[in-house]
Design brief:
By secondary structure, the chain is an alpha/beta fold. It is 17% helix and 34% strand. The protein has two helices and eight strands, in the order βαββββαβββ. Strands 1-4-3-2 form a four-stranded mixed β-sheet, covered by helices on one side.
Amino acid sequence: MKFEHFALNVTNASAASYWYEEHLGLKVIKKMAEPPYMTFLADDSGTVMIEIYSNPKGETLDFEKLHPLAVHLALVSEDPNADRDRLVEAGAKLISDDVLPDGSHLVMVKDPWGLALQLCKRAIPMI
């Protein structure tokens, strides 16, 4: 089996997908202009996607109340300090900024809707 996508039911899919496109550099693969605003976004490899939508048929998690270790979206960052500052300027909230004993740099922020994003610069890349 191979991952196709990971889906998130959010309160404002249109705004969230735009923010992810603008500030995370994700590319639109498919986007609906009408409810539930289903949007598939891919990373720059073109092999990993997330789906963002606002569907009242399903539960919308209160990401703001969830601890970042309960659920987060981890992204490779070549410069976690610059990405942290840029995302905070764009409305994200800084949660933590840690350098691990192996030299990996992990920054946790929450996007404007409360979903935790982990910016990862691993000492030894995992993929």
